[in-house]
Amino acid sequence: MPRPVPPANSGATQRFPVVVVGAGPAGLTVGNILRAASVHCLVLETETRDVIEQRPRAGVIEEWAVRGLEKRGLARNLLDRAELHTACEFRFGGERFRFPYGRLTGSHHFVYPQPLLVTDLVREYADVRGGHIRFGVRDVRIHDLDTDRPRVSYTCPETGERQEVHCDFVAGCDGARGVSRASLPPERARIARHDYGIGWLALLAEAPPSADCVLFGCHARGFAGQMPRSPEVTRYYLQCPPGDAPENWPHERVWSELRQRLGAAGAPPLTEGRLIEKRVLEMHDYVVEPMVHGRLLLAGDAAHLVAPIAAKGMNLALHDAFLLGDALVARLTSGDGSGLDGYAEACLRRVWDYQEFSQWLSEVYHGTAAGDPFRAGTTVARLRRLFTSPAAAAAFAEQYLGTAARY
Questions:
Q1: 303 and 169 share one domain
Q2: Which of 111, 254, 278, 399 is a Cys-bridge partner for 83, taking CB atoms 3.0 to 4.6 Å apart?
Q3: Within 13 Å, how many C-alpha atoms sit on residue 202's CB side?
Q4: What is the pTM of this model?
Q5: Are residues 337 and 241 in the same domain?
């Protein structure tokens, strides 16, 4: 029988085999895997439960990732409610080109907004599997990572007192700006970065999608994209200068640019609606190596960031979480440390594969707006090859769906 865990703020020394820092898709998936194996863990999150269940984020999940969630009993609502996408459409040169990747591969995407997935994962972890979680914590710190007895401390939101938790392992799943990545000794962390030199204006519109699939507009004025989120809400992107301000994009300008950049012969008009979110994303990538430092294991955006160009971020986070959760269970229940030993290498193979595809796709999206006639010409050649070469189409579909590096 597992040892009973003292409740938070009980005054007793708290000890958990694993402390998970961050309650995003990666952290909650790791927590659920541990609880399914009856391994105690504590999840620490700086935001409230309401915030993490509502903040808009990604929405495209690759089929292999859904099957990984399903295998672990974490996909019931997703499978019931998600939309299935089997095609995307490129628009360039005033024409429409539909790419039926489902027919080419037999695979598809699931469209399920990240807030819904996080809501499902929190409920399963905290309410069904009885996992320990603390929301709204402040000033999280990680200590003694080079020993076999690491500690995590935080300020309790209710009392303002410092709490300390002893553990065997820390799973750092708290994103790009979290304490986990910051806890790596600077002399040991190698961060490979790439800056695309562009921005994307990310928009959420209270409007139904204007097409039944994802749209990619490759236009001389800049890239535009439509990503359906639900029958009532649609995600749009507009290429913009880096450092641009959302205030520079009033309602009429947004919709005018979307109409121009997504316009094509025979295309139905865009369905406009109120813009409920506007923020500028700086298009950049990074990869942190090592992903493991002592008893700290990074996952998700704490370890790597891939720009939303290819909709890969949440999928990479889930891949990390599957590997890390399974490896921790093996180590803590049977003493098998082989999964932890190979964790970073296994993660990074897929990370670098997705980074390379993101760079390739960025040139397809943005090359026609680069102001360079040569780049514009080669970009159009790439696009046309997708629709004239079966080999090029198969290679693109494999990378777009994430089936090149199967989990």
A1: yes
A2: 111
A3: 12
A4: 0.93
A5: no
